[in-house]
Design a protein that fits this description.
Layout lengths: L1 E7 L5 H16 L3 E8 L2 E3 L4 H6 L2 E6 L16 E4 L1 H6 L3 H4 L2
Parallel strand pairs: 1-2, 1-4, 4-5
Antiparallel strand pairs: 2-3
Length: 99
């Protein structure tokens, strides 16, 4: 399975990166490919390419604030799982439970 995610939190510092790490770890542990775009205090890091989004089986939004360029995901709404950074840090397996 190919998973892409965007993480962002209100301050754009700790939870953004902690959520990204949690998603990457749970994907690796389950044998899934994963790319995570972080939208934090430094702006967009590791920006997802259109091909990454198109080929994804699961798109995870782990955000507390509005996403930058959310229109990129409009054609793929049925693949999107919405959660909060804190929730995915606490229980990263939830990204697979809800799908």
């Amino acid at each position: 399975m190919k998973v892409v995610a965007i993480t962002s939190c209100a301050t754009g510092i700790a939870h953004t990166y902690m959520a990204a790490e949690a998603i990457q770890k749970v994907c690796k542990a389950n044998g899934h490919k994963c790319k995570v775009e972080k939208q934090g205090a430094l702006g967009i890091e590791d920006e997802l390419k259109a091909k990454d989004i198109e080929e994804a089986d699961l798109i995870v939004f782990a955000n507390d604030v509005g996403l930058i360029n959310p229109e990129r995901f409009e054609p793929y709404k049925e693949k999107v799982l919405q959660t909060k950074p804190h929730d995915v840090i606490k229980n990263p397996d939830l990204i697979f439970e809800k799908k």
